[in-house]
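Lecture 7 notes: from sequence to structure.

We start with a single chain of 225 residues. Read the sequence below before looking at the structure.
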Amino acid sequence: MTRRDQAKIEITPEVLLKAYACGIFPMAESAEDPGLYWVEPEWRGVLPLEALHVPRRLARTVRADRFEIRVDHAFDAVIEACAAPAPGRGKTWINSRILRLYRELHRIGHCHSVEAWRDGKLVGGLYGVRLKGAFFGESMFHLERDASKVCLVHLVARLKLGGFRLLDAQFLTEHLAQFGAAELSRRDYQRRLTEALAGEADFYRLSVAAPIAGGVVLQSISQTS
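Now the structure, written as tokens:
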């Protein structure tokens, strides 16, 4: 289900947060299309915070601390990289309005990035929206193998320790299915969303002042194979 917005209606960060609280989010047809439309999927992809499945090879990579993981260190660079074409992804849906709106959400403390760095270079990351006990994953990118996947594992550990109750992945993809992501009907998703929004959570309960060892992160992730 989609509804294209009217040009005369201004979409502000506050409007965005109200939309997320109702279970809808904006997208664009392409990076070149200036318009936005609201999306409310009939089936919603959700990642399990209590039982994330971490494949054995990825767990080794996380434990080896191949990447330095930072949080909210280079948000603009992350969202720009997510918007850029990449191998296997000729174009994206992140247009200039999306960039502007989510930068503003970041400025007011409701949008965050988890970043993978190697030798002083940003090589992968993801960003998403935080609202009470829910986190809405938006997009991710990688320049090195597994960089964005390691970021996702670190994100789940942070959300679990912070008391979050929902990690919304928007759509179920083959990439997310390997982590145990599943689809919820619109009705079941709304129930989970209502529960998550009923309580507060702390995105910064896990420190960002110093890197967190991958082994520590994996201790809070219950399933590997």
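The chain has eight helices and twelve strands. Keep this in mind for problem set 3.
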